[in-house]
């Protein structure tokens, strides 16, 4: 097919990563002119919502943090399926069965601690111990997509469940803002333990930050940075080429080079990460998460007071 | 005044300026087209423009050619003796100079009617005297109808050809200054303009008698006469009176005296010092019979 | 009349496009989904609590701002302390620093890793809860952020306070304390009310400080609640947001109406020409007062700014600043490697300058109409003023959404799309910051002697000539002062352009926010540090240029 | 004036008030302790206080008991006839009433010296006349040293016991109003106060001769005489002169006349109308020999 013309991409990837992705894609398809907008998932979605409201959605392709949001858009009929996509190499849990969205990498949420902390946690249960009292930080599911999925995965875990969150509340945990804020609180020593996405501590540790990331025994939750084509896309051909590029081994290598855990099992993870096969993922069902989204948040507010 | 200039709109009535109807049924010429010049009480000079620019503005507004405007401006500035200050800002001028700028600007509009609202009210008395002379000379030369509003009767009398006394928006009297001073139409005018005494006397034709003294009066017959201080003198055979106040006014004393049996105190001028309580004998040398 | 009528009509059209259309569309969204959606947006405990928190934090922080701003203005305006110029300048800088940068800086300054506090051994214990993550933290920081606004307003009023008022009290035997309590403060009452209202409305619309300090303390204000609703991604987010924004607007308008009512009761008609400032001799307590001022500058400016620089100079957040760790890599990265930084500086400078220029002129016309003699015209002018007040209080994020709704499609007739261009950011700035430009101009217009315009009328000048030759030159200093404030505000803002920026059209605020958001704290700090330096340089430049200008043009020049 | 009140600090010198040094070497009593009362040119009433509060403020500042202060305030208000307006705000008062409030407030400070800075300058002439009388009466009753600053000589002469003529910060003459009017110390004072004519004449003892006319003069011998308009009359055998200007002033005409061979124009008053160009014959009836 003739892959050319203008492609509009809305993404929540950090600036530099988004730039690299776009550059690599353009190197492969020089006839495509990519126009992209990068912002936090919240703001990207707010912008998109306003565009929906005005009946003029701009993007062809959406590359955002979490599957639950994609599931919601799919339910509203906003996504275009891409049946020809080759997902054979991937774990089936990472891809939408109807091929509306496709995971591109794994951003896991595990435990982070400040290296000056007295205890080295290895499991979620360790955080309920005496050493961690009043020393906990975590992102709020009301702000962070990754935290929403983390909450959804943990509360549906048979050994942890809502009791675990109630335990965290009893420990004085105070969910604040997004992952950036949580990471800062731990790196800055305001708090000692917390949940955070993997790449922040792993990358900064290499720069000398006093932090360490732990993959807990129970497993980690993951946001998979899914990519999807909008049903209102102006340039579906280029959009499909973009999706195909991201899930190709070449695109996956790019993700690894940028410092993320690739979703493709055969691509080597970046320095500092364990192999994909060594990482235990908590079970997660995006459709169920979407259905329970409001309930979960209400329950969360009940426990932590919003 | 604001009605005449068109800055406010009257409820009803008709205003003509130089034989042109500017307000009336269905007519309301906007101020910018009325061809009136106004000297505001506050002068209303534009502080951000030089003297010359202030004066040149009306020409500019009329779209006159720059050279012509400059010529006329220079002419007007010369007429008010401000040529040397043409480049200054209004803030660097004294009160009298500002007033002259306002005058020059009002001339520059080549108006057929000039309205002046208490132009000298904010000046100190010395400057006021000088400006009064200049205004008079200027009016004589320019021959433009000028409406001059003031609270100061001395000023009004010195400047006006025709003087109107207004009270609460109504004309009380219209006439030459001398007319109004010597022959006030009502008691109100008499009391308002200058000093004087009003009392009941027995008027017969052109003579009045009061406590045995007979003196000439003119004016419409009535029981009340009005006497200016100039017509009160001290005479040995006069009516006995007692000074109640006396103020030195430079060269003479402004005094009031009380006559037994008369409520009003008599206003008079004395050439010699006097003190409250002194006894004098008064003689009236002329009066004006007030109409009823 | 022709020219005047046409201009008036044009002004109404512009106002309709800038204020009525976006806000109207937003209102449609609020009620468009039906009553049920409207009520569900208000449902639950969170909305009433956020209303209360917003109200409480605005009332209390405005009070702090009033006390702090007035006290410093009185000291600088009435006494013989030294170095008034530089002190005024330094006290105003915190106002020009974007609120979220202020919040970040303060958190760093008072946290366990604070270089400053560690140096003097006062740093909080590692792992302890940050003292600023609390209701009090939000209120105090909002107070500090807005105190310079009150300071500026009171200082200007002191300048026009007839000196004989205080002279008369002194010869009547009043000591300075009584002079202050019985004469000066009561005379300043309308100004104090206006300053309080300004601080209140500013705090009400503030997002940066409650977002960074309030969220961890679970102290949610209305603007933060809007943000959280946005983050729930559901299909009703816009309705929720519009409804909550409506609440903010209602509170803001109520506050402004209340202010006007109060001020009309306390009206003290005494606008005099500028007077030489009163010099109360402080004598022996002067060093004490001067030390107090120095401490205030230390606390409001030096403390947060040094924290920011300390963070900007380390390789990654959390590494203590020592001789071994100090690096300029962050500055090098943002200044020389990231093209977005240079572009953001360029964009912000252009958009802020254009917005300042347009608003300054626009304000002259609106203020003139709001002071017009014709009742109907005056009503329309007043309505425009009220709209401006509303949009100033509505959180910037909501303004963003409203502008997306209004301008996503190509403009009718010309068929040009301004979506994803700098133009839409410019329009949103015009809408959000109009009130700032209007305030000084309204004050100046009310002081203007009407006979100046009338004198031009009887000289035969039509509307345009009077506007360009008389009114505009006379109001220009006030308009310039308003324009400068707009420029400095727009230069650093983040929320209005939050949803309107696009690649190639970044602003300084969004760039800092994106660095912070993406976890690049050190880069964000470096960029914020550069921004503060740039702001100070700009203010210094204006200050220098203001030496030649008439008094009042540069707002902080005494 | 601001120096006396202590609102400004002189570079050097010494100021005594009622036998107390308030400024001098090492002494500088602050304004609040000088016990002076000031009536400001603008009145400087506090707009946020009622009339009564304005007047009571000095007592409040002195920490006087509330009942005593209220009593004294009522007393002062009665003295200026403002008892009924005690509850009003200054903005609801007329100019004259405001002036009276300022006066009452200044009394309330129980000052030993009262300073008034052009208190009547902003009033219209009618009100000014009334207020002048009240001020005089008030001064007679209160017996407080009052320093009254004005540009209006008529006002100064009417009110003052001692009058000082100041020019550029220096006293030119200090004396009773009559002294200054009749016997000016210098030509500058003569020209500044009232109207009059200065010309060269031949003075011999107490007589002067000018163009053949001989008239009495007093004062230090010199070549220059100063003649007030009151001392100029029209006489058939007088010196021929030509009227240059004449303004009606109510009851008389203020005129200037030119005599051949004399630069200065002669100031005179005429009882009858006159026009520029009329010929008159002048007679001098008395003059003052100016010192060199
Ligand atoms: N058309 C009108 N209808 C009712 N009242 C009017 C009208 N025109 C003028 N007035 C009133 O007449 C009064 C006199 O106005 P004007 O401006 O002439 O005052 P003034 O005598 O010049 O005062 P000042 O001496 O203080 O300058 C004003 O108070 C105004 O309210
Ligand atoms: N110590 C001083 N050194 C130098 N100049 C002084 C000093 N004190 C007063 N002056 C000057 O003397 C001038 C006269 O001041 P003053 O306030 O008495 O003016 P004024 O005659 O009352 O003016 P107005 O009639 O307009 O009220 C002022 O311009 C002031 O600058
Ligand atoms: Mg008037
Ligand atoms: Mg003075």
UniProtKB/TrEMBL annotation, chains B, D:
<dbReference type="Pfam" id="PF00005">
    <property type="entry name" value="ABC_tran"/>
</dbReference>
<dbReference type="GO" id="GO:0043190">
    <property type="term" value="C:ATP-binding cassette (ABC) transporter complex"/>
</dbReference>
<dbReference type="InterPro" id="IPR003439">
    <property type="entry name" value="ABC_transporter-like_ATP-bd"/>
</dbReference>
<keyword id="KW-0547">Nucleotide-binding</keyword>
<dbReference type="GO" id="GO:0016887">
    <property type="term" value="F:ATP hydrolysis activity"/>
</dbReference>
<dbReference type="GO" id="GO:0022857">
    <property type="term" value="F:transmembrane transporter activity"/>
</dbReference>
<dbReference type="Pfam" id="PF08402">
    <property type="entry name" value="TOBE_2"/>
</dbReference>
<dbReference type="InterPro" id="IPR050093">
    <property type="entry name" value="ABC_SmlMolc_Importer"/>
</dbReference>
<keyword id="KW-0813">Transport</keyword>
<protein>
    <submittedName>
        <fullName>ABC transporter</fullName>
    </submittedName>
</protein>
<dbReference type="InterPro" id="IPR027417">
    <property type="entry name" value="P-loop_NTPase"/>
</dbReference>
<feature type="domain" description="ABC transporter">
    <location>
        <begin position="1"/>
        <end position="193"/>
    </location>
</feature>
<dbReference type="InterPro" id="IPR013611">
    <property type="entry name" value="Transp-assoc_OB_typ2"/>
</dbReference>
<dbReference type="InterPro" id="IPR008995">
    <property type="entry name" value="Mo/tungstate-bd_C_term_dom"/>
</dbReference>
<dbReference type="GO" id="GO:0005524">
    <property type="term" value="F:ATP binding"/>
</dbReference>
<dbReference type="InterPro" id="IPR017871">
    <property type="entry name" value="ABC_transporter-like_CS"/>
</dbReference>
<keyword id="KW-0067">ATP-binding</keyword>
TrEMBL record, chain C:
<feature type="transmembrane region" description="Helical">
    <location>
        <begin position="89"/>
        <end position="107"/>
    </location>
</feature>
<dbReference type="GO" id="GO:0055085">
    <property type="term" value="P:transmembrane transport"/>
</dbReference>
<dbReference type="InterPro" id="IPR000515">
    <property type="entry name" value="MetI-like"/>
</dbReference>
<protein>
    <submittedName>
        <fullName>ABC transporter permease</fullName>
    </submittedName>
</protein>
<feature type="transmembrane region" description="Helical">
    <location>
        <begin position="179"/>
        <end position="204"/>
    </location>
</feature>
<keyword id="KW-1133">Transmembrane helix</keyword>
<dbReference type="Pfam" id="PF00528">
    <property type="entry name" value="BPD_transp_1"/>
</dbReference>
<feature type="transmembrane region" description="Helical">
    <location>
        <begin position="470"/>
        <end position="491"/>
    </location>
</feature>
<feature type="transmembrane region" description="Helical">
    <location>
        <begin position="138"/>
        <end position="158"/>
    </location>
</feature>
<keyword id="KW-0472">Membrane</keyword>
<feature type="transmembrane region" description="Helical">
    <location>
        <begin position="350"/>
        <end position="371"/>
    </location>
</feature>
<feature type="transmembrane region" description="Helical">
    <location>
        <begin position="241"/>
        <end position="262"/>
    </location>
</feature>
<dbReference type="InterPro" id="IPR035906">
    <property type="entry name" value="MetI-like_sf"/>
</dbReference>
<keyword id="KW-1003">Cell membrane</keyword>
<feature type="transmembrane region" description="Helical">
    <location>
        <begin position="58"/>
        <end position="77"/>
    </location>
</feature>
<feature type="domain" description="ABC transmembrane type-1">
    <location>
        <begin position="51"/>
        <end position="260"/>
    </location>
</feature>
<dbReference type="GO" id="GO:0005886">
    <property type="term" value="C:plasma membrane"/>
</dbReference>
<keyword id="KW-0812">Transmembrane</keyword>
<feature type="domain" description="ABC transmembrane type-1">
    <location>
        <begin position="345"/>
        <end position="542"/>
    </location>
</feature>
<feature type="transmembrane region" description="Helical">
    <location>
        <begin position="523"/>
        <end position="542"/>
    </location>
</feature>
<feature type="transmembrane region" description="Helical">
    <location>
        <begin position="417"/>
        <end position="438"/>
    </location>
</feature>
<keyword id="KW-0813">Transport</keyword>
């Amino acid at each position: 097919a003739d892959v050319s013309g203008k492609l509009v991409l809305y993404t929540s990837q950090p600036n530099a990563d988004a730039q690299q992705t776009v550059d690599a894609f353009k190197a492969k398809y020089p006839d495509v002119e990519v126009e992209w907008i990068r912002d936090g998932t919240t703001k990207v979605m707010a912008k998109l919502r306003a565009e929906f409201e005005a009946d003029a959605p701009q993007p062809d392709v959406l590359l955002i943090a979490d599957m639950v949001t994609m599931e919601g858009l799919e339910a509203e009929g906003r996504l275009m399926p891409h049946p020809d996509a080759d997902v054979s190499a991937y774990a089936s849990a990472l891809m939408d069965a109807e091929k509306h969205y496709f995971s591109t990498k794994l951003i896991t949420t595990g435990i982070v601690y400040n290296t000056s902390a007295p205890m080295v946690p290895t499991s979620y249960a360790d955080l309920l111990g005496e050493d961690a009292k009043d020393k906990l930080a975590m992102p709020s599911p009301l702000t962070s997509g990754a935290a929403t999925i983390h909450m959804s995965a943990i509360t549906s875990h048979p050994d942890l469940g809502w009791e675990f969150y109630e335990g965290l509340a009893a420990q004085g945990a105070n969910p604040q803002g997004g992952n950036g804020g949580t990471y800062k609180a731990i790196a800055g020593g305001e708090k000692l333990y917390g949940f955070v996405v993997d790449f922040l501590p792993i990358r900064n540790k290499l720069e000398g930050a006093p932090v360490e990331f732990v993959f807990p025994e129970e497993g980690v939750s993951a946001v998979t940075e899914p990519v999807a084509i909008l049903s209102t896309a102006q340039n579906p051909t280029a959009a499909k080429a973009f999706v195909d590029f991201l899930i190709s081994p070449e695109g996956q290598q790019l993700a690894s080079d940028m410092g993320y855990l690739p979703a493709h099992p055969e691509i080597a993870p970046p320095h500092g990460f364990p192999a994909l096969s060594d990482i235990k993922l908590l079970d997660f069902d995006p459709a169920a998460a979407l259905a329970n989204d409001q309930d979960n948040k209400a329950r969360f507010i009940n426990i932590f007071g919003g | 005044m604001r009605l005449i200039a068109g800055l406010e709109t009257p409820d009803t009535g008709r205003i003509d300026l130089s034989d042109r109807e500017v307000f009336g049924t269905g007519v309301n010429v906007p101020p910018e087209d009325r061809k009136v010049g106004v000297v505001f009480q506050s002068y209303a000079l534009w502080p951000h423009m030089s003297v010359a620019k202030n004066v040149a503005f009306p020409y500019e507004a009329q779209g006159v050619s720059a050279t012509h405007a400059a010529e006329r401006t220079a002419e007007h500035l010369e007429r008010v003796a401000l040529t040397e200050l043409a480049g200054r800002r209004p803030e660097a001028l004294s009160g009298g100079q500002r007033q002259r700028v306002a005058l020059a600007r009002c001339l520059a509009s080549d108006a057929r009617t000039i309205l002046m609202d208490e132009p000298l009210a904010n000046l100190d008395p010395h400057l006021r005297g000088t400006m009064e002379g200049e205004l008079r000379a200027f009016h004589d030369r320019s021959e433009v109808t000028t409406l001059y509003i003031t609270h100061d009767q001395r000023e009004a009398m010195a400047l006006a050809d025709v003087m109107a006394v207004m009270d609460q928006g109504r004309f009380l009297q219209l006439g030459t200054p001398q007319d109004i001073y010597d022959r006030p139409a009502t008691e109100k005018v008499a009391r308002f303009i200058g000093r004087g005494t009003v009392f009941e006397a027995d008027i017969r034709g052109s003579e009045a008698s009061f406590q045995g003294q007979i003196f000439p009066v003119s004016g419409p017959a009535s029981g009340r006469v009005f006497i200016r201080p100039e017509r009160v003198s001290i005479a040995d055979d006069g009516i006995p009176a007692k000074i109640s106040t006396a103020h030195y006014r430079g060269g003479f004393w402004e005094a009031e005296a009380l006559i037994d049996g008369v409520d009003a105190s008599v206003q008079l001028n004395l050439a010699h010092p006097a003190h409250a309580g002194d006894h004098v004998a008064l003689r009236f040398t002329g009066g004006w019979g007030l109409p009823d | 009349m022709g020219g005047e009528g046409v201009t008036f009509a044009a002004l109404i059209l512009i106002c309709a496009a800038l204020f009525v259309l976006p806000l109207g569309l937003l209102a449609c969204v609020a009620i468009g989904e039906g009553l049920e959606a409207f009520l569900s947006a208000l449902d639950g405990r969170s909305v009433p609590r956020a209303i209360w928190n917003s109200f409480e934090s605005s009332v209390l922080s405005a009070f702090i701002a009033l006390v702090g701003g007035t006290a410093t203005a009185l000291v600088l305006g009435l006494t013989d302390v030294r170095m008034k110029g530089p002190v005024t300048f330094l006290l105003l800088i915190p106002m020009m620093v974007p609120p979220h940068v202020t919040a970040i800086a303060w958190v760093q300054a008072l946290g366990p890793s604070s270089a400053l506090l560690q140096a003097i051994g006062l740093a909080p214990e590692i792992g302890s809860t940050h003292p600023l993550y609390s209701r009090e933290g939000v209120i105090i920081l909002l107070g500090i952020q807005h105190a310079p606004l009150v300071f500026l307003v009171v200082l200007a009023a002191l300048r026009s306070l007839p000196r004989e008022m205080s002279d008369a009290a002194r010869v009547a035997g009043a000591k300075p304390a009584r002079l202050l309590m019985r004469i000066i403060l009561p005379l300043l009452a309308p100004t104090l009310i206006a300053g309080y209202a300004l601080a209140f409305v500013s705090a009400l619309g503030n997002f940066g400080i409650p977002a960074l300090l309030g969220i961890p303390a679970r102290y949610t204000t209305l603007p933060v609640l809007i943000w959280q609703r946005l983050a729930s991604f559901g299909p009703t987010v816009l309705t929720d947001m519009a409804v909550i924004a409506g609440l903010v607007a209602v509170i803001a308008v109520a506050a402004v109406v209340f202010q006007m009512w109060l001020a009309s009761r306390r009206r003290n008609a005494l606008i005099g020409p500028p007077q030489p400032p009163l010099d109360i001799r402080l004598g022996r307590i002067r060093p004490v007062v001067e030390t107090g001022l120095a401490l205030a500058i230390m606390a409001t400016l030096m403390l947060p700014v040094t924290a920011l620089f300390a963070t900007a100079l380390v390789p990654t957040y959390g590494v203590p600043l020592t001789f071994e760790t100090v690096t300029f890599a962050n500055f090098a990265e943002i200044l020389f490697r990231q093209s977005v930084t240079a572009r953001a500086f360029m964009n912000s400078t252009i958009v802020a300058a254009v917005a300042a220029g347009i608003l300054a002129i626009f304000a002259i016309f609106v203020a003139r109409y709001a002071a017009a003699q014709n009742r109907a015209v005056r009503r329309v002018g007043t309505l425009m003023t009220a709209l401006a007040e509303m949009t100033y209080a509505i959180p910037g994020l909501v303004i963003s959404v409203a502008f997306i709704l209004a301008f996503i499609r190509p403009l009718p007739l010309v068929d040009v799309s301004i979506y994803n261009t700098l133009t839409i950011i410019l329009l949103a700035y015009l809408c959000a910051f109009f009130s700032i430009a209007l305030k000084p101009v309204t004050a100046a217009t009310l002081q203007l002697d009407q006979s100046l315009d009338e004198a031009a009328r009887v000289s035969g000048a039509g509307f345009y000539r009077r506007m360009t030759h008389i009114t505009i030159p006379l109001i220009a200093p006030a308009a310039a002062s308003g324009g400068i404030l707009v420029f400095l505000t727009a230069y650093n803002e983040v929320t209005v352009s939050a949803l309107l920026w696009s690649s190639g059209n970044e602003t300084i605020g969004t760039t800092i926010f994106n660095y912070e958001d993406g976890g690049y704290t050190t880069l964000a700090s470096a960029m914020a540090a550069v921004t503060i330096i740039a702001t100070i340089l700009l203010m210094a430049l204006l200050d220098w240029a203001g030496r030649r200008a008439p008094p009042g043009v540069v707002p902080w020049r005494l």
